[in-house]
Amino acid sequence: MFIRAEYSVGPDLRFLSNLDMNRMMARSFRRASIPYALSQGFNPHIKFSLGTVLPVGVWGEKEYFDIELSDFLSAPDFIKRLNEVLPSEVFINKALFLPKAPAALMRIINGASYAFVFKKGYNLAKLREDILRSSSLIVKSRGKKKDIEKDLRPGIFKIEIEHIEDVDVLKLWVATNQPINVRYDELLALFSNFGIDYEIIDVYRKGNYIRLGEDFYSPLEKVS
Q1: Is residue 62 part of a domain?
Q2: Which of 107, 133, 163 is a domain's end point?
Q3: Could you tell me the pTM of the whole model?
Q4: How far apart, in Å, do the first and last CA atoms of the chain sit?
Q5: Which tens digit of pLDDT belongs to each residue from 123-164?
Q6: Quick one: 49 and 132 in the same domain?
Q7: How many CB atoms within 10 Å of residue 147?
Q8: Which of 84, 107, 130 is the last residue of a domain?
Q9: Are 61 and 14 contacting, i.e. CB atoms less than 8 angstroms apart?
Q10: By CB count within 10 A, which of 54, 107, 115, 192 is most buried?
């Protein structure tokens, strides 16, 4: 038996590392008396896995994890128990009970959307058009193979602009995982390549997705 959950991580925890997030979740499962399954061996651990790593410095609206259960627990009870013990900046939005093991999140998530919050007054429409009209968008890789030239253009699918009171939000849907993995800090470098010196107030990940053709689905919508 398994639970797949969608959760949010607020801005105050943007500098929490992936290891810290794993530890916090494990402690919360224990405090909430979740009937979790344990691995075998000399040093057993809770059988759960986070989805794609949330970069340090970025908060997230729709992150995901899977946990294996040793006994039945309904999704509503799971949500209620965890939200009672989690820090205020972490919240379980949705959960889905699964009778059998789902495909691993790290394998099936192949898209994400990042939001960059700018002060008003900048020409984000031009930046959007410049990016989408470009045949290639070369930046230095910020991943494991640092400073290798990388073309982001095949991994940028769509861009939207949202106007909210005194800020404008540039939202980009990009590829993650293989064969193209677009990082948020590479997008920042891309803006600089266009000579952009805009003041960015905030950066967050709006969601993780399973991209099929031109459509984006949450890991709760597509479970295999």
Answers
A1: yes
A2: 107
A3: 0.91
A4: 14
A5: 889 989 999 999 999 988 887 777 788 999 999 999 999 998
A6: no
A7: 8
A8: 107
A9: no
A10: 54
